[in-house]
Amino acid sequence: MVQRKKKKWVRRVVIGVLALLICLGFTAYVYLQPYEASHRAIEAMSPSDKLSITSQEDWILFQPTDSVGTSVIFYPGGLVEPESYAPLARGIAKQGYPTYIVKMPLDLAVLGINKAEKVIEQQNHESYIIGGHSLGGAMAGRFASNHQNDIEGLFLLASYVDEGGSLASTSMPVLSIIGSNDGIMNIEKLEEGKQYVPKTATYHELSGGNHSQFGSYGFQEGDQKATISEGTQINQTTSFITDWMTTNHLK
């Protein structure tokens, strides 16, 4: 009788653990679903006579026919499909800069901070800058801090550098762009992050822009509504980045 009760107790424990694992798995599945690239983003993945686009395991490359030299490495925002940044990457590449959108494990840059190493090791380019959106920007900052011999500049879209990626003691050019209607960005963290970048850092605020429209994946939960179009925000962002590169001789 005692043995039978013990078996029942063990069975109940096993069933309980399995039920818990199933619940945790389902919760992870629901909450780790990435924002999908929009139709506009998918269209931006189409090559042209002056731009080739290749997608492989670790990145998507936008390669202009007439390259000016410096290559751009981009880290996507957290839980956002990399293709969502195709309009931005296409705009940068059209100015002559080969642009790599890095594919992250589970679409989380925090799980692939050093994935830019593969681009640098496998591609034959002389110079690189790195940047990213939101979580991707923070992780790009950490990569830049730890690879100062490889990276010549850093740009941040709705993001900031933390202490773990401090560049305060360097002369690395840094660009920060935020939207005035960003409902997700932690402004206190943004202000705090200014102590971790050089005093020569450049700051731009996009009037009417929000957090979501640095990519093309729809409206992100918690954001505020933008008063400019997605296309306008991405075009202005592209101009700020390429102008900053020119000003700082990153070409």
UniProtKB/TrEMBL annotation:
Signal peptide: none annotated. One of its GO terms (molecular function) is hydrolase activity. InterPro entries: AB_hydrolase_5, AB_hydrolase_fold. It holds the Pfam family Abhydrolase_5. Coiled coil: none annotated. Residues 71-233 form the Alpha/beta hydrolase fold-5 domain. The keyword Hydrolase applies. It comes from the Bacteria. The keyword Flavoprotein does not apply. Gene3D superfamilies: alpha/beta hydrolase. Keywords: Hydrolase. Transmembrane segments: none annotated. This is Alpha/beta hydrolase.
